[in-house]
Specification:
Blueprint lengths: L1 E4 L2 H9 L3 E4 L5 H9 L3 E4 L9 H19 L5 E7 L25 H6 L7 E7 L1 E3 L6 H12 L2 E4 L5 E6 H14 L5 E3 L3 E5 H12 L3 E4 L1 H8 L3 H5 L7 H7 L9 H6 L3
Parallel strand pairs: 1-2, 3-4, 4-5, 5-9, 6-8, 7-11
Antiparallel strand pairs: 8-10
Helix pairs in contact: 2-3, 5-7
């Protein structure tokens, strides 16, 4: 197994886990092509999480996927691309849903870039990820927790009924292994254990963890309170994984849900 490493520290971490380190970076497409060309299969999970520059991060992701695809073209090798869940309105997303054509304002094009490789001799498939949590990090909730610590209050927008699906880090890792072995080219899979955790409950768990008050923020005041986190705080992307469970025989095995990991976070 070979892993991409941006630094000597990352390389040592990979080597301690029994993997070989390949020096490279998302900003260096040539390093991605070189690594992919020598691989039997590729799993792409990297993304620049500077959400203050979301459009730039999404473009970097698209270019990285295309660079890896160039190296795999004509090989019939398996290429697993990580994407977000489709931002649908008014219903629960399933594996059969395609990303909205206009993206509903989301500039990420991971899935579209992956699907474009199907006609180039690449067995491309997609794993759509919800909020990934353990006791150290809890997806976007980690940013909300830091914001609540700074503000001295944990907030949600409106009635806080918008929902975030979630999965434990170890459960998510098992999905990648199963898709690598049994995934079907052109399919999308959902690594979703909890279909939709209400953001109000997330805010309340953050309040418990930090011992700060919890309050609702109006739609009009949300941008002023949350700043760049406003879009995240309003996000409503409930999703099902029933098809993934049926296709792969996957089930969540971790005893702790997202709220529990927030309340007991490091």
């Amino acid at each position: 197994m070979v892993g991409l490493a941006r630094s000597e520290a990352a390389a040592r971490t990979l080597e301690s886990a029994g993997a070989e380190a390949h020096s490279g970076d998302l900003n260096e497409p040539a390093s991605l092509r070189n690594g992919a060309a020598a691989a039997d299969a590729v799993i792409h999970v990297a993304f620049n999480h500077d959400f203050t520059k979301l459009a730039e991060s999404c473009e970097l992701d698209r270019v990285a996927i295309e660079a890896i695809g160039d190296a795999l073209a004509g090989s019939d090798k398996r290429f697993i691309v990580t994407s977000g869940l489709p931002p649908l309105i008014g219903r629960i997303a399933t594996e059969d849903d395609l990303p909205p054509v206009d993206g509903l304002g989301m500039p990420r094009r991971s899935e579209q870039a992956a699907r474009a490789l199907l006609g180039r001799g690449v067995q491309a498939m997609v794993i759509r990820m919800p909020q990934v949590h353990d006791r150290k990090k809890q997806g976007f909730a980690t940013y909300l927790l830091a914001h609540a610590r700074q503000k001295g209050v944990s907030a949600y927008v409106g009635d806080g009924g918008n929902r975030w699906p979630a999965v434990h880090r170890l459960d998510a890792a098992r999905v990648y292994g199963l898709v690598l072995e049994h995934g079907v080219a052109g399919r999308s899979y959902h690594a979703v254990a909890e279909q939709g955790v209400p953001v109000r409950a997330i805010a309340e768990s953050i309040g418990d963890r930090l011992n700060v008050p919890v309050t609702a923020v109006s739609e009009a005041d949300a941008a002023g309170h949350f700043g760049w986190l406003d879009r995240i705080a309003r996000m409503d992307v409930p999703a099902s994984s029933l098809s993934t469970q049926a296709a792969l025989g996957w089930r969540s095995t971790q005893p702790h849900g997202m709220l529990d990991d927030i309340r007991n976070s490091a």
